[in-house]
């Protein structure tokens, strides 16, 4: 059987009844925290590129390392969930600040690199997500 001869049921992509409600909640939290980190990292890169208030370098690298170690050392519980999310957002912000010089260099070379990289990454992430949801074996 050829893989291209197979009929694709696109309605199956929108049905998640085979996933338990607890798994659905977990996936929702994972994707929400991923989106939050992406926006906060973009804000950190924007802050670096526009204001140069927080210069990337040793300070942002040490800050992000300290926040990641603090996040790993904080036990996971319902009471510490907001604290852990704040630590993750701080790590993402400082990571975005650390990407500022690389983004400035990319813009100096060719400004179309950034939107192309963003769209390519978004398309790959979408394809992997859809393939994971559509797969028969999990």
UniProtKB/TrEMBL annotation:
<keyword id="KW-0472">Membrane</keyword>
<feature type="transmembrane region" description="Helical">
    <location>
        <begin position="53"/>
        <end position="73"/>
    </location>
</feature>
<dbReference type="InterPro" id="IPR006214">
    <property type="entry name" value="Bax_inhibitor_1-related"/>
</dbReference>
<comment type="function">
    <text>Endoplasmic reticulum (ER)-resident protein that confers cellular protection as an anti-apoptotic protein by limiting multiple stress-inducing pathways surrounding the endoplasmic reticulum and mitochondria. Inhibits the activities of the key sensor for the endoplasmic reticulum unfolded protein response IRE1alpha/ERN1 both directly and by blocking BAX/BAK binding. Modulates ER calcium homeostasis by acting as a calcium-leak channel. Negatively regulates autophagy and autophagosome formation, especially during periods of nutrient deprivation, and reduces cell survival during starvation.</text>
</comment>
<dbReference type="Pfam" id="PF01027">
    <property type="entry name" value="Bax1-I"/>
</dbReference>
<feature type="transmembrane region" description="Helical">
    <location>
        <begin position="116"/>
        <end position="135"/>
    </location>
</feature>
<comment type="similarity">
    <text>Belongs to the BI1 family.</text>
</comment>
<dbReference type="GO" id="GO:0006986">
    <property type="term" value="P:response to unfolded protein"/>
</dbReference>
<keyword id="KW-1133">Transmembrane helix</keyword>
<dbReference type="GO" id="GO:0043066">
    <property type="term" value="P:negative regulation of apoptotic process"/>
</dbReference>
<keyword id="KW-0834">Unfolded protein response</keyword>
<keyword id="KW-0053">Apoptosis</keyword>
<dbReference type="InterPro" id="IPR006213">
    <property type="entry name" value="Bax_inhbtr1_CS"/>
</dbReference>
<feature type="transmembrane region" description="Helical">
    <location>
        <begin position="85"/>
        <end position="110"/>
    </location>
</feature>
<feature type="transmembrane region" description="Helical">
    <location>
        <begin position="30"/>
        <end position="47"/>
    </location>
</feature>
<keyword id="KW-0812">Transmembrane</keyword>
<protein>
    <recommendedName>
        <fullName>Bax inhibitor 1</fullName>
    </recommendedName>
</protein>
<dbReference type="GO" id="GO:0006915">
    <property type="term" value="P:apoptotic process"/>
</dbReference>
<dbReference type="GO" id="GO:0016020">
    <property type="term" value="C:membrane"/>
</dbReference>
């Amino acid at each position: 059987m050829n893989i291209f001869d197979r009929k694709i049921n696109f309605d199956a992509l929108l049905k998640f009844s085979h996933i338990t409600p607890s798994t659905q909640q977990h996936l929702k939290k994972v994707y929400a925290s991923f989106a939050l980190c992406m926006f906060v990292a973009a804000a950190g890169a924007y802050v670096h590129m526009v204001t140069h208030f927080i210069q990337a370098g040793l300070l942002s690298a040490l800050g992000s390392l300290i926040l990641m170690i603090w996040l790993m050392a904080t036990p996971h519980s319902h009471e510490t969930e907001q604290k852990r999310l704040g630590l993750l957002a701080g790590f993402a912000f400082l990571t975005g600040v650390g990407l500022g010089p690389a983004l400035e260099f990319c813009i100096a070379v060719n400004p179309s690199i950034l939107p192309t990289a963003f769209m390519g990454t978004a398309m790959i992430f979408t394809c992997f997500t859809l393939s994971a949801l559509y797969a028969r074996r999990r």
